[in-house]
Structure formats: C-alpha cells, structure tokens
Amino acid sequence: MRFGHFDDVRREYVIDRPDTPLPWINYLGTEAYFGIVSNTAGGYSFYRDARLRRLTRYRYNNAPFDVGGRYLYVRDDATGDYWSPSWQPTRSRLDEYECRHGLSYTRIASARSGIRVETLYFVPLGETLEIWRARVTNERDTAAELSLFSSIEFCLWDAQDDATNFQRNFSTGQVEVADGVIYHKTEYRERRDHFAYFACSEPLAGFDTQRDTFLGAYRGWDQPAAVERGAAFDSIAHGWAPIGSHHVRLSLAPGESREVVFVLGYAENPQDAKFDPPGSQTLDKRTVRPVIEHWLRPETVAEGFAELGRHWDVLLGGLRVTTPDPDTDRMVNIWNAYQCMVTFNMSRSASFYESGIGRGMGFRDSNQDLLGFVHMIPERARERILDIAATQKATGGAYHQYQPLTKRGNNEIGEGFNDDPLWLVLGVAAYLKETGDATILDEPVPFDNAPGSEAPLYEHLRRSVRYTQDRLGPHGLPLIGRADWNDCLNLNCFSDTPGEPFQTTENAHGGAAESVFIAGQFVLAAKEMAAIAELRGLDAEAAEYRSAAEKMTGVIIEHGWDGAWFRRAYDFHGRPIGSGEDDEGQIFIEPQGMCVLAGVGLDDGLAVRALRSVAERLATPHGIILQQPAYSGYRIELGEISSYPPGYKENAGIFCHTNPWIMIAEAMVGNGDRAFDYYRRINPSVRETLSEVHRCEPYVYAQMIAGRDAPTHGEAKNSWLTGTAAWNFAAITQWILGLRPEAAGLRVDPVLPADWPGFRATRAFRGATYEITVRKAAGATGRVDHLIVDGERVDGTVAPLAAPGATVRVEAVIEG
C-alpha cells in the first residue's frame, strides 16, 4: 500500500493523503538554523543546538503523535467555517491534499470549499530564519472574505529546562510586539543575549502571544478561540506559555491569489549593544529589522528558494549514477545522499525519535557519518573532524557525545564506549582518501577542549590506537568497557548474588569483558594508520601498525572464531558470547561484518564461511537481524540488550546500520548477487509498496526494522538519523558499484549482480570529473581487470589523479 509517490524529476516525495502510518517528516536548513517539519506541518525549530537553542516547543509521544508545529488556520469569515490547510491540527475534511517533501524544503497544498492554500517552508542559505510562504487562492465564482491565522509556540530556549522546570518557567515568559513583529525575549536579561522573532508581510488585524488566550480555556490547537471567533485578542504574554500568532484579513476576488510571507528567526544582540538602564530588556533591532524586511518581500523569497535549489544541484552533482535499477538510482542520486547530509548536520540529536534533549553529537556516530558526506562538502567534513577530535581525552578515550553548541564532551553520557576512539581513525582516513588534504594531520587540536593541551591531529590518531592497545583482556582481545558499537551489550554488568542488584565494574580497564567486534575494528584502523603513517614518511611506524594488525588478526582467529562464524565477545566471567555453546544469542551480525571488512578470514575461507552463516541464520526478507536466537528474558550479565522483547532493537531486531557491513563483506568476497540482494531488502524506495507494514518514510532509511521474532516483523522505527544512511551509501557506491576514493586515484572495481549489463556514473574527485562506463557480459560475475582512461590502457582498477578541472573518461569491462 502506498501513501504517495516519488517525483524524481523534481526530487520530491509526494504524499497524497495526510493520514500516513506515522508522521513522515523532512528537515529544513543546511547550516546553523534547522527545523523538523512533518507532512501535516508538525515539528519544531532550533539554532545550532536542539537542546540549548530551541525556538519552538514540541511535545513528544503525544496523541495524536504529531501535535505542535508551524500551523496556519484559514477561516471563511462569511460562514465561520475554519480549517487547517495542513490538515493538522483541526483534521477537518479537505477536498484536496498534497505534501511535497523536497531537499531542505516542504510544500503543503490543500483545498476546501473553493479556497486553495499552498504553503512553502524553507530556510534560506546563510540565514538564521525560516520562511513560510502561504499562497491563498480563491477558486470560487464569488468573492471570499477570509482570515488567516499563524501560530507557533515558543520554547524557553533550553528544551530540557522548558519541559521540566515549570515552577520557574511559568513566571519568566516575555514577549514584545513592535511594528507587527512578535519578539520572544524570555530569559533575555538573566543569561541570554539572544531572541526570536516572528513577522508577517501583511498588515495585521491582530495578534496573540499568550497561549491560553489564543486557544481559550480547556481548548487545544484543534479549536483555538481566536480562530473560532474570527478575531485575535492582542494578548501579551506575562509568564505562562508565550506563543506567536498573526491575524491577517484577506479579501479575494474570484480567481485571485495572494501571497503572505511569515518569517520565524533567531537573532543575537551585537557585541556593542548598550542599553539604558544597563541590563534592561531592550531588544537591539538594528541588525534584525533589515533582515526581516528583506525576507518579507515575495521576490526575495522566490530568489532564496531558487538559490536553495541551485545549492542542491551542486551538492548532488558530485556523484550521479545510471544503473538498471530505478530504486538504486533514486537513492544514490537523491534521497540517500540527502539523508547523509541531514544526518551529518544532526548526528542523532533531533528527530521524531530523538528529542534533542538526551543526546548531542555522537563521537562514534559523527565519524561514521563522514563516510556518506565527505564528497559533498569536504571543508565542512574537515571542520567536523577537528571538532570531534577536540573532545577526545588525553588518554585517547572519548566522550560518547558532545553538545553541538558548546562543542564540549557530554558528561551526562561520559566515556567508556571502547570502540569510540578507533572511529576517529576511520573518519580521518575517509577524509584523506577523498581530499588528499594531509595538512589536517598537522592541525593543532586540544584534548578535552583544554587550552594549552593542543597536539597535532595525527597525535590524536596515535592515542586512539594506543587506547585499544592499552586495554586488552585475558584473551588478548580489546576490552569492551561500557559497550562497543552495540550500546546495549553491557557485559561488565554482573551480580555476585542471584536476586541482588547488579554492579558495573569501574576500573582502569573498564572491566574484564572483551569485544571481538573491537578487535576487527582495530585491525581495520591499524591498517588505515599504517597508510597514514606512510603518507607522512613514517615507514617504521607504519610497519608497527601492520604488525599490530597482524597480531590482532591471529588473536581473532584463535579466540574469536567459533567454527562457522566469528564470536561476538567474552563476558565479565570469560564466557563466550555469540557462540554455538550458548542457548540464545549464538550468532551476531556485527563481528561477521567488521572482521571481514578488516580482511580477517579473506585468505583462509573463514570470511566466506561466516557470511554463509549470516545468510543461513540471520537473513530475512526485511533485512538481516542482529543476532539469533533472540534472548527470551532478561539476563543481568548481558545488560540492556536482553531488556528488549525478542525481535526489537538490539534483541534480534534488524538493526539496519549493520546490514551494509555485510553488503560490503559480500562484495569483498566477490558475491555481487547477494550483496545487491541485501541492499534491496532494506532500500526504502523498494519498501514503498510495504508502507502499511514498514510505516516509516519510504524515502529515507530507518535505524531498525522489527525482526522475525517480533509480532510486527517488517515494521520500522527511528527513521532519518542513523548511521545506516552513510554506510548504505558507502556500500552501494564504493563496493557494489565499486567507485572508491584512494590516495593514488579513483578505484573502479564494481561487484555487480550477474544480470546487470553494467552502469554509468559521473564522479567529482579531487577537482576533476570522472565519466565512468562499466560494461558487463550477460551473466558474468567477475571483476574488472584493467581500465581504459582517456583512450589509454591502465592496468589494475585505479584511474590516476587528474588535474583540477579536467574531465576524465574511464571505461571498464567485466568479462569473466
């Protein structure tokens, strides 16, 4: 069942009914000001940090699910009939409805009783504001007298405090209305030198800034008193719940259209602002008023929107593919790339499944996000790497998360996720391969953001590797700490006495539990460090890293191989996890993927055998599940993983993030059919026909899909912000299609399905443009032997670096 369709020409997903299984959302903004908007105009906005600079309020886990957002109300002043053109929150019957989610914008159009309203939401480039452009058209044969009401609910900046500290916040809300602009200045005097504003392009018939007055006593957003009576109350908020609402009257002749522009924005007072008396709550409007007036002009809005489209033309133009599979083209060329950009901006901080309060930017997460983003805006990837590295501790350890506004480690989450440091090596390696910018390695970066502690980024990478080497367990495998990639596998939790509360080991080494996953990750990172050391002319150091990788490979084979797959870990008591010896949780997906990615078992057949076990035991029609059998009850020695019901999240759910590791592993062993089959199983575009089962958006990846042990097998959760986006982009573009950036050039080494005749691609790389054609004999499953580069044969599969501005034509043939 479908609730919409793809419009590939306009790069939009078109939703043609508002009652989607879940709110289907989009993101506004690409730089510092961001917003979430659903297909019914729900969501919220913030500046840089979803917790510390929240502009508008949103209540999670509400009923209906999606309540609170960028709402407009239309009222027929002749009859008193009113409705929401976005369907929510009034949920009135609409004669027509359409939502078009595009790249950093959303357009919602609807019609009722001969009145059509189309609202465009977007954030202009370079600005800290969002635009709502409402185009109201009278399609009747007679004139229409209408009222248009806007509405947003201000958040009191710190979203955590806003949601909890009512005894204080009900007394602090403050607004100011001047020249038709509503200014929100709560807590301005005490500790904030910033404010929000909400402006309208039309002369106002009235306004409201107090929620209880606008809505009325015991009413909700679906039945506002001001809208019902057809006139605003001109209320001024003094504490309680500040809002912003404009009331505009429109007289439209038959066939006439009018555009009304609303601007919601964030501003800070200039550093030289002086007020009399000092500390007074005067807003300095010198800089913001020209900005407001500029963006209230329809012609400015039109050009700003066109500029946003051109911006995305450039970003997506760096990699374009034409394959025999439309779902692949759609995801690679548009939606997967777009999701990578959004995920890079947000990490995991702000979605309809992450409140923006509980976590900021992830250390592990943000490094992985680079894999899908670095080719689009390398300079921002460079900045992000340095931000991440500055939160690293001098030990080489890492805060698991940091706040994007302060760029400081999040002490609430802390450290001890022992895979975190190695992701910095892998993130930097991806950046170096894409850009060739080795100067980043000499960039001075502090530890824990402490002044005077600066060291070159390369030293941070050294300490990342040393962190693992200094923390090895009884089998010589890396200690897992609080957890590795799987945050819910907490193997240092234990109870000395049955029935007694569990303890968590806290010592210098983070407990005795060991991780085979981190061991595989270490092998991969050590090999990357060897290449980076060679880049710096440190051949002896490179040899040490290769030796360390070889030694850990031996440990994995000795203590991490279970006979038909790689074990997952050893618990605090030294018992294997992910072993045929176990009654439940015998095989896990993570080490099968990571160990093969690191090259473990490629030469002796272990990799092929492990991947066969994945196909036999973990693969389902909806994707590859995380482990099997599922844990049937809580096990204190395993931690949070066993707290989930079977088939959900980490307990045998389809954790989509790990699926591309298996796709890449299958490509590495030359199995193109299976790699591509796995790719299609979780591809959102492919799953569009299953929307009533999948439920999440059919245009972006979800973090997880319920596994076969779950009653709702195939149902997705936690869409948008997931490492699934970057890893799937890497799996399809770098391994299945085989277009991999490397130090020496662009590798063209595809591993394609047997029935494909080939594909074409355009890839921007180091300032040059590579136009690539891959041809394949019918049924062939071999690999490329050589390339024809600008008419000349090149042995191997690496197209050499070209001069910036050059166009390079590459031909590759698969015959075997």
Automatic annotation (TrEMBL):
Record's keyword annotation contains Transferase: yes
Keyword list, A-Z: Glycosyltransferase, Transferase
Limits of the Glycosyl hydrolase 94 supersandwich domain: 11-273
Record's keyword annotation contains Glycosyltransferase: yes
GO molecular function, one term: transferase activity
Ranges for domain Glycosyl hydrolase 94 catalytic: 311-738
Chain coiled-coil ranges: none
Protein name: Glycosyl transferase
